[in-house]
Amino acid sequence: MSPTDPFALFAQWMALAEAGEINDPDAMALATSTPDGRPSVRMVLMRRHGPEGFGFFTNLESRKGQEIAANPWGALCIHWKSLRKQVRAEGRLVQVSDADADAYFASRSRNSQIGAHASDQSRPLDSRETFVRRVEEAKARFGEGDVPRPEHWSGFRLVPDRIEFWEDVEYRLHHRRLFERQADGSWTEGLLFP
What top-level branch of life does the organism fall under (predicted)? Predict the structure, then answer.
């Protein structure tokens, strides 16, 4: 029997994905929206998961960062095509602590750290050469020393109040389990028609 704790079930599915999904098992579609409800969605990499939520990192000045600042609700979908499974979650987006952002930033490759300093993520770029020049300038500025986390770079956790686990079944007779968080923090579980 599958766990009735949605995070335990997610950990089981994630382990299957890490063992069998050939590309980016941690890729997820993240949807945010403006205060007036205009949505946008993009692929990001899930870097944390557990009872505190699903975590990712980004430039706070990017479109997604600005949308989260204005409207802290989001949704995500993780689809493992080769496993014929997907997970959907909806909830509040909460910024991680500076210590967590620092620790994750320090774990990134040096080139990724440099890129975080060189990029004005989501803003117009006049030419690729401009970005390449900015990368080279950042490399020169930091030399061989540590690359600090930019102040405008951090992470978020989507703290779900709904999580759906979807499994493909022949003839579109899919199996859908829905977990909903209650006011006391416990979870209820039910099924959805496919």
Answer: Bacteria
